[in-house]
Amino acid sequence: MKKLVLIVLLALGLSACDGGKQQVCTYEQSGITSKLVHKHSGDVIKSTKETLVFTYADLGIAEDGKKDFQKQVKETYDSLYGTSNTSYKEGKDTFTVVLSVVYNKKTIEELQKTGVVDAGNAAYISLEQSIQHLENAGYVCHK
Q: Span 25-46, mean pLDDT?
């Protein structure tokens, strides 16, 4: 019985691990910080989670402009990534956007239609190419 319990626990532990690795890239500009985490297996990105924090004061947004700013950001990110991949958190001094995308053929096709992915007829998202694009855009990717 103990052996069976041990095997079940080991199987559960192994199934919880996807064997993938993480690549973290960060970006900071006046009023905007971003942390992007790619979960990958080799050069294939399996999922991405990006947390963007907009700081109102640093962006020059007054109290009476916060709601309009939030509406504009939501409309932009929802149209690009879809409402199922985006979430938002309103703070007193900040507005946070969290983008969570699990890549599969359907997701890649949808992101190609909105222009987020420009990889042509890609079957997967390349980690190496993504890092190159991110670093060219000012992100710092930590190895």
A: 96
The CATH architecture of the domain made up of 19-142 is 2-Layer Sandwich (3.30)
The total of other beta-carbon atoms located within 10 Å of residue 42's CB is 11
Do residues 36 and 134 lie in contact, with contact meaning Cβ atoms separated by under 8 Å? yes
The pLDDT of residue 121: 62
Task: Check pLDDT > 80 for residue 7.
Answer: no
Domain residue ranges of the chain, discontinuous segments joined by +: 19-142
For the entire predicted model, the pTM comes to: 0.80
Rounded CA-CA distance 131/133 in Å is 5
Q: Which of 130 and 2 is assigned the larger pLDDT?
A: 130
Q: Are strands 44-55 and 86-90 parallel, antiparallel or unpaired?
A: unpaired
What backbone phi and psi angles, to 5 degrees, belong to 60?
Answer: 75, 30
Q: What does the alpha-carbon distance between residue 75 and residue 52 come to, in Å, rounded to a whole number? A: 15
Tell me the residue type at 30.
S
Classify residue 73 by burial, with Cβ atoms within 10 Å: 0-12, 13-18, 19+. middle
- The pLDDT score that the predictor gives to residue 92 is 93
Task: Give CA–CA dist 22/42, Å, rounded.
Answer: 10
